[in-house]
Write a structure and sequence with these properties.
Radius of gyration: 21 Å
Structural class: mainly beta
Strand content: 35-45%
CATH topology of the largest domain: Immunoglobulin-like
Shape: globular
Number of strands: 17
Order of helices and strands: HEEEEEEEEEEEEEEEEE
Helix content: under 10%
CATH class of the largest domain: Mainly Beta
């Protein structure tokens, strides 16, 4: 009798081992240029066991502000990162003499956006640095979208970010400090809907001043999105306070206003 009872347990155990025996997914990363007063940029990655950088990650003309690259997989490991000018054909010269960023660990299964943040000019504001945001690329049930906020606006105060309904802001993220991202929140949407129009806004968490408000139509059922708060306080034109809504699973971004 004991042998008969043991056999199903052994079978389940063997199946569990078989399910867990597959290779772990390699890191999946994308690059973002969120420096409001920058030229086009690119980044170079150097694994810890190599003596020299290879070629720029994005290639071509690099990334103008504000923009995100497509995703690519890399080997798991510890990297050094060098920010270079967009259009660079090699990694020999860093942008504006910026130093390399060391000890960037990319583990198996990681899905991240490596964002170039800060500003190149001005005083009293964060200098250029590399922000790292852990992303999600799926897992949202039908009839919802998953959305979070990331504060990438140098010189800004913590921001409340949410959906605008009439004259009210319904926050899905509160007090998001510069260089950080909120947790993902579920927002109801019509099942199967695509290109849904939504009004989104960010406001200063302390005094309620509206940072930026915009209307977006790049939202679809089951999607996962990050709303980046971008720009420089008091600026106009390219560096104006603004919002950038990007899908976490594809190159699908829209800026407003």
């Amino acid at each position: 009798m004991s042998r008969l009872l043991l056999a199903p347990f052994v079978l389940v155990f063997v199946l569990a081992l078989a399910c867990d025996s597959g290779p772990a997914a390699p890191p999946s990363i994308r690059i973002a240029n969120l420096v409001p007063d920058s030229q086009a940029v690119d980044v170079c990655l150097k694994p810890g066991d190599l003596a020299a950088f290879g070629t720029p990650f994005v290639g071509g003309a690099g990334l103008s502000y504000p923009a995100l690259s497509s995703r690519a997989t890399v080997d798991a490991g510890t990297y050094s990162v060098r920010i270079v000018a967009g259009g660079a054909t090699n990694c020999s010269t860093s942008l504006n003499g910026l130093g390399d960023i060391s000890n960037v660990q990319l583990g198996e299964g990681v899905i991240q956006t490596l964002a170039v943040l800060g500003r190149l000019t001005g005083t009293g504001s964060p200098s250029v640095a590399l922000g790292r945001f852990d992303d999600r690329t799926g897992g949202t049930p039908s009839g919802q979208v998953s959305m979070r906020a990331a504060n990438a606006a140098p010189g800004s105060n913590p921001e409340d970010v949410g959906v605008v309904s009439g004259s009210l802001l319904n926050p899905f993220a509160t007090a998001v400090s510069y260089g950080t991202a909120s947790a993902y929140q579920s927002i109801p949407i019509t099942a199967g809907a695509t290109n849904v129009t939504a009004a989104l806004a960010a406001r200063d968490s302390t005094d309620g001043t509206v940072w930026a408000q915009g209307t977006f139509s790049n939202i679809s059922d089951t999607g996962v999105y990050t709303l980046y708060v971008i720009g420089i306080p008091g600026q106009t034109g390219t560096a104006r306070p603004s919002l950038l809504l990007c899908s976490d699973s594809s190159v699908n971004c829209a800026q407003s206003p």
